[in-house]
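Database export, one record per block. Field names are fixed; values are copied verbatim from the stored entry.
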Amino acid sequence: MPLGSSGIFHAAALIFFSYLGFEEIVKLSEETKNPERNIPLGLVLAVSTSIVLYVLVAFSAVSILDGEIEPILGSFCRSSFSLSWSERLCCSICDSSLATANTVLLMLLAASRIAYGMANSSSIPEVLGKVHSKTRTPWVAILFIAILSTGFILLANIGYLAGVTNFTVFFTFIVINAAVIMLRSKKADLQRPFRVPIAIGRFPVLPTLGIILNIFMLTQLSFQVLTAGLLLTLSGILAHFLYEKVVIHRVG
């Protein structure tokens, strides 16, 4: 721990980006068979397995190299000039850029489904809710999200970009956990295919801990990241209300 406990917390707030793929699985529930069972089960198994693997890789990395390491595989591949062809092939296949591409692909897929759902609820222009006649996918939303996302390529600092992304995720998780608590009190009799375990009466314990943990993670982000995240969040809220007031009311 060359940077002490504060370094661990800052790293945790940044590396949270690696867990975004799991959160995106929920957005594909409408396209999953028996989602009430398979989505929670898939999430728990995937997260549990990945946590074990992440810890083992981190333990191996800090045991072999010092604390100031870059992505472990890229550092190994660049510093070892005597690698065999099979070892270099492994480096190419497991390169972090491929892992990042996989995460980006899943996020683009999930974001297009979010845009599709918001378009169907008239929260954003309804053209984003168009479905392709053959593939049955929201092709307009997919193209829109892909084009919008390419603008972030111009940001050279991937750490800053990951931090801003994590801000939006932490903020979203706070809202989701708060919604679980509110639904338990206001709609206690609502049918629930999946119920969050561990509660004191009707008060869920895990969502409360989730709110506290996400607020703590927000405090570990830099001032620049917090500022950018707040501006993005406020701009999204403002755009929604403007669209609702100007477009929807005009149509109504």
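Remark 1: The longest helix spans residues 35-64.
Remark 2: Residues 156-252 form one domain.
End of record.
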